[in-house]
Amino acid sequence: SPLSAGARGAILGVIVGHDGLADGNVHLGIYAAHVVRLVERWNVRADDLLLGTGLTRAALEDPSSRISDEQMHRISLRALALTKEPALGFHLGRAVSITAHGSVGLAVMTSRTLGDAFAVAARFFPLRSGHVELVYRVDGDFGVFELIPRANFEGIEVFEIESLYSGLGHILSL
Q1: 11/7 Cα distance (integer angstroms)
Q2: Nearest of 65, 63, 61, 91 to residue 76 by alpha carbon
Q3: How many CB atoms are closer than 10 A to CB 86?
Q4: Strand, helix or coil at 147?
Q5: N-term to C-term CA, the chain
Q6: Cα–Cα distance for residue pair 34/160, rounded to 1 Å
Q7: H or E segment and range at residue 87
Q8: Whose C-alpha in 1, 5, 57, 87 is 20 to 30 A from the C-alpha of 142?
Q9: What sign for the dihedral angle of Cα 122, 127, 55, 97?
């Protein structure tokens, strides 16, 4: 089986409620830079998207840039409002290149099985971002992949779920 020796069923996606928000989570600026590039498809200018965040497009393109949960939350909310695209998270997951995920993306992409890929993603995702905890386990015939928010997801729940799952799917399809 592509999941593991013991799992033969479908992957289930589950999100559980806020289980202790962490203060001070940071996101790699490159993920916000991908949002900036993505919303241009809907004719949204970077300056309009980043209004009120204290960020610039140039700063986000810096490979060493880090932004706060609050800044990423604001960018995500503004992206949804300005594009009016309900599937924006799906588009984001598909648009982020494998190289943006660094060594974690490469490890997921080269995993032997789907179950191995999910286990790698769950174990090493915190190296890329602390805003969500990924948990993967085999439960009988099913592989269960849980997303546990560690930041404010208010108004962006679907966006976050879609971007994470479609991004993982995109990596696995390469």
Answers
A1: 10
A2: 91
A3: 11
A4: strand
A5: 19
A6: 14
A7: none
A8: 87
A9: negative
Does residue 136 contact residue 6 with C-beta atoms inside 8 Å?
no
What secondary structure letter does DSSP report for 41?
Answer: G
Q: What is the mean pLDDT of residues 149-159?
A: 87
Token pair in block for residue 45? 């200018």
HSE-up of 147 (CA within 13 Å, CB side)?
Answer: 21
Q: How far apart are CA 24 and CA 151, in angstroms?
A: 9
Containing 81, the helix (H) or strand (E) segment is: helix 69-83
Chain-centre distance for alpha carbon 133:
11
Instruction: Please state the pTM of the whole predicted model.
Output: 0.80
Q: E-strand spans in 39-128?
A: 66-68
Determine the Cα–Cα distance for residues 165 and 159; give it in Å rounded to an integer.
Answer: 10
For residue 24, the model assigns a pLDDT of 61
Q: Are 12 and 141 within 8 A, CB to CB?
A: no
